[in-house]
Structure to design on (294 residues):
């Protein structure tokens, strides 16, 4: 009975320490741009005294790069990092260093890896916004706002007449008649069916919690009714032309009829002339015949 308890206790204690395990000090690290950072990475004794240690980097777009390989930093990291027994240290980081760093350890047929997520903190820059100056009532209108530098990515707020617009206007009596849709994560402000109530001066603000929030330029967006004056002028012109069409058709028809009458009269006159010429010819023949008789 005592032996059984000892065996179970041995198995339980062994299970607390998994073989070939890599451990990192902090899986998520945040540091300001141009400052140094230290990644802690340790491993169990199963790997031996000198295992193979590699560091890999995967940026926000998913592109992967070797940082430390074959016991030395790769070209783009030479002079920037120091690898020691238990971790990796950056002398100074830039915003391009934001991403995931994999600490991979292998030896004695064992392998394990752990990831450290680095976020290089960068204040937002002045956002670039696109706001139309004039739109037509009833149309679908998009306003956009984007900050290219903020890390972590900025969230966005829109202002109208220097008043912040709530993310959901239906929850506030002062804004319930407005029909916009706001996306605070990508900076879009959409008016599915814009109305004259939406006329006003707009600007956006980018904020990621680092430094001072940055505002874009204010632009007056005027919502106007569709201009029908040109269409009316064209319609009026067409109406005038349409009114003149029957009179033109009637006149042409009359002229054609009169021309036909003249042509018919001319034919009749020619026939009468021919009949007269025929009668004259007959008379001449009769006279000749009388003159030949004794």
């Amino acid at each position: 009975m005592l032996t059984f308890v000892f065996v179970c206790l041995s198995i339980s204690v062994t299970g607390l320490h998994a073989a070939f395990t890599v451990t990192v000090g902090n899986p998520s690290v945040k540091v300001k741009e141009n400052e140094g950072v230290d990644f802690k990475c340790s491993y169990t004794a199963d790997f031996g005294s000198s295992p193979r240690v590699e560091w890999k980097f995967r940026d926000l777009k998913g592109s992967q790069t070797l940082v430390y390989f074959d016991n030395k930093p790769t070209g783009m990291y030479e002079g920037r990092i120091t690898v020691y027994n238990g971790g990796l240290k950056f002398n100074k980081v830039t915003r391009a260093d934001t991403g995931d760093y994999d600490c991979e350890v292998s030896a004695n047929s064992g392998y394990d890896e752990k990831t450290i997520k680095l976020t290089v903190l960068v204040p937002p820059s002045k956002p670039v916004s696109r706001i139309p100056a004039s739109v037509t009532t009833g149309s679908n209108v998009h306003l956009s706002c984007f900050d290219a530098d903020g890390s972590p990515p900025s969230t966005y707020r829109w202002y109208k007449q220097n008043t912040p617009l709530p993310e959901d206007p239906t929850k506030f009596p002062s804004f319930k008649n407005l029909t916009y849709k706001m996306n605070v994560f990508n900076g879009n402000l959409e008016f599915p069916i814009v109305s004259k109530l939406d006329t006003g001066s707009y600007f956006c603000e980018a904020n990621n919690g680092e430094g001072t929030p940055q505002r874009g330029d204010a632009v007056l967006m005027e919502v106007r009714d569709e201009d029908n004056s040109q269409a009316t002028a064209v319609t009026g012109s067409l109406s005038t032309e349409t009114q003149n069409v029957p009179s033109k058709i009637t006149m042409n028809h009359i002229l054609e009829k009169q021309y036909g009458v003249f042509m018919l009269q001319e034919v009749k006159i020619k026939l009468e002339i021919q009949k007269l010429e025929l009668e004259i010819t007959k008379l001449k023949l009769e006279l000749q015949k009388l003159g030949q008789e004794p």
